[in-house]
Amino acid sequence: RASVKKITTGSQALDGLLGGGIETRTMTELFGEFGSGKTQICHQVSVNVQLPPEKGGLSGKALYIDTEGTFRTERIKAMASALGLEPKDVLQNIMSIRAINTDHQIAIVEELQDIIAKDNTIKLVVVDSITSHFRAEYSGRENLAVRQQKLNRHLHQLVRLAEIYDLAVIVTNQVMARPDMFYGDPTVAVGGHTLYHVPGIRVQIKKSRGNRRIARMVDAPHLPEGEVVFSITNTGIRD
Length: 239
Ligand code: ADP
Ligand code: MG
Prior knowledge:
The chain is of the alpha/beta class.
């Protein structure tokens, strides 16, 4: 694990929980309710990956697969400015792709292999969110098995990209306030545990008071379990 690199989240507390930051060669799943801050973290890490290593980045570019239409160039620019970076340059180093359905989302990831093979400066791939299209298109218990099979294959492809190209993968997964309503749905985190079995790190994000958020490490193979508090501010993710 010596060659694993880390990208800062902007919060020392959250970095600490993650063992130094978002890791390369690993898929990190952020799961939590609507508004918990998953998309904000994805935006921040897409900016921070561009920082030089001494500032917590990898001097790299980001690929952002947006399935919910929540990617915001204005937010990226604000986060870049706050770090003293040129907003236009930072935006140019984030390739955002809107995925319109599961087949499109899967096809994009299949094509990434070629894009990344040609451009070794890509150090982060975001899929925000990994589950929304799958849930919408394969609703109902009778479709669960085929959905799980497709989703698992898709997730394993992402894990492989991370491992082969030494890059970080972040996926988000929105879970409901009342997971008991979705009993039997393996993509819904019940009691904080996502029930599909793909290697990686899982972090639950929970709302706290005001702009405060709680991050909780779940089932990490090499990191201690624990909880930390961070904030979502005008300038981005902070302590
Ligand atoms: P999720 O993706 O988990 O549904 P988001 O990442 O979209 O949630 O987080 C939304 C929250 O982030 C908002 O409710 C707000 O609290 C915070 N937020 C978004 N933009 C800003 C901003 N410019 N300044 C401060 N907080 C913000
Ligand atoms: Mg979101």
